[in-house]
Design brief:
33% helix, six-stranded parallel beta sheet, 424 residues, four-stranded mixed beta sheet
Amino acid sequence: MAEKRTVAFHTLGCKLNFSETSAISRLLEQEGFEKKPFEEHADVYVINTCSVTDNADKECRQLVRRIQRKAPESMVVITGCYAQLKPAEIAAIPGVDLVLGAAEKFNIVEHLSNLTKGDSAKICSCDIETVSGFNASWSVNDRTRTFLKVQDGCDYNCSFCTIPMARGKSRSDLVANVVQHAIDLAAGGVREIVLTGVNLGDFGKGPDGNKKNSESFYDLIQQLDEVEGIDRYRISSIEPNLLTNEIIQFVAGSKKFMPHFHIPMQSGSNTLLALMRRRYKRELYADRVKVIRELMPHASIGADVIVGFPGETDEIFQETFEFIHSLELSYLHVFTYSERANTVALEIEPVVAVGKRHERNKVLRNLSYMKQQYFQQHHAGQQRKVLFEGNAKNGMMEGYTDNYIRVTTPYREEWVNQVVEWTL
């Protein structure tokens, strides 16, 4: 019997990428490939890239160089956002054999069967305007929690962002399909589903991006709440202008949707929000936080913030700092602005010095740490439900409370994949 071909994966970037890597992995395993850890020797290496920051581009190049040293005869396939945005640039990296754009990554089996090592790198990419259709995907590395992709692409045109160019127009799965995926995942032992997408609140435009069906994100969460076997759902991230009162009220009354919101802010200054082409003002953001806190005082609320965006003067940064300080947030994800080709932000002045961008990042990360400490101390002594995960690290296991406080405790086999009442 012929030896099985082996494949190894590496994922850069967001949760959406992780769920898509899992889907691509399942396609190859169905074709008889055996999955190997990325550190080991494999016949095919697949790198699923991100292009949100410069660092992700650099990391991709370093990974290819590492494979070249370790396994020069192996096939190297690059897919993901960087592959869609700059296919020729990637194809020119020595050692790359195949570049798959947004429409082609799920046709990887077919492309690999027509590929010979040693040919020049083959680019299979198309104009992002023509990308349509929706490929459901979910991560299954850890049985306890899975990231389920329900939406892809984005119709917004934020001035700093390349995602619409990399992933195409906003499109989504149908509610009935998502519900069926949740039922199947529950049957496989999954206890928690994190709903993911590029612009999750925009769910309902259907697989081709035309809003022919009248489904909405609110419809989706109502139906998922009824699925037997799934104990917990989380909403990975939702734009403040799409986070309606009815969604907040529904989560507040739900047994399964966790009191945990991640709401991108990007800036606390209306001047900068306008330059960023965001679709809300700081007043709306503050109102969303206020409504959540009134209905769920215990909820975890996280925010994304970009520092060093062009036009961010010291005064504007101070405005953002004070705005965040005034809000009852639980943590921040702080991003240092980096220039991306073909974005409107490149025309905005004044440009913030790179050193200053890093200083501001540090200031907001310190603020995030203080917010996180305060949030956790505020819940000390309370009893909350913790779902423990299976992966042991140095004899310890970890899990999260409903409101996203991480708990670490000595490993106990009987707690794996179980919800345990825990005193914080």
